[in-house]
Amino acid sequence: MHDTEMFLDEIKIKIYKPALYIGVLTCLGVWVGDNLTNNSNIISNIFLPFFILFFSVFIFALKKGGKKYFELFEILSICLVSLYMVSIYANEIVIGIPTGILNINKYYLWMATLYVTPFVMLKPRHALIISASVLLIISALGVTFLVLSPKDENLVHNADTIIQTFLSNVFYISLFSTILHLKNKMQEVEIRSNIMHSIAHTDMLTGINNRRMLNELMDTLIHQQKPFSIVLTDIDNFKKINDTQGHIAGDQVLASFGQELQKNVRENDIVGRWGGDEFIVICPSLSEGQTHQLILRLKNKFTEIDCASFSFGIAVFKHGDTPELLIKRADSSLYEQKKQTQGWAVITSQ
Prior knowledge:
Elements: H1 2-36, H2 42-65, H3 70-99, H4 105-121, H5 124-148, H6 155-201, H7 211-223, E1 228-235, H8 238-245, H9 247-263, E2 270-275, E3 278-284, H10 288-302, E4 307-316, H11 323-340, E5 344-347
Antiparallel strand pairs: 1-3, 1-4, 2-3, 4-5
């Protein structure tokens, strides 16, 4: 779960960086446009320059510190956006009370940001609490306007505006809450699916790929007609290790060998346990000669360790091959190599 949260934070940071640039340009455009058209007010003249500075600072901070400033950015963003939107609404309420004229067009224009921000940045429960709190403040301001403003021909229109404002805010909260709930459910399903896939395709003893995964990978490469070779290897006299040192020691040998094999192949090679003491390395884009060089490199690595011995067989993909045919050829190669010599190093339980 911790890895999942870190992954989601990485995605958020990648999204926030371009969003911050857009935020700077948007705030600058609105601020300049309002002042050029004499449509500015004290709220915009205070908040918009501050937003420009705030976003610019955090563009720099995210570049330098990354996650160090991540949580602070989210909290400050939510607080500032909420305060800005409530202030816009409150300012229009205060201006409109003496005249009975309510003009909240600016609030409507940017209302969505009031709810997008918490639902994108926070957990659903926290986002819902903040959104509901803001809605209560907006509703209280609307009721205050109706109570204190003149009871003239604008009253019905103003009441309708305030009621629709309340309903539209409720709609936004419900919409974003539902979207976030569905997104979280989809993430849960995906995480559960990934866990089940990992369990189904991982050898429990060694922690590397199992036979099913190896078969699927070979099927994929064969279907794509991509060149590859396989290395089938087993531990010589493994039964003797089990008989003399016990099955626990034998399991330790298997687990250690699988992990060492995984660590010492190429990055794009696929290592798995075929069964018993047999392991397979699938080597994409390697010829037989290149695969032999890989085996020599493994030999040189494993001979540095106090060890038993292992044998190997190689098969190169040919047109018309199936996983079964490849394994059969590799097994024959393994058998021939065993007849010729033994003594390739592999770690033991000690």
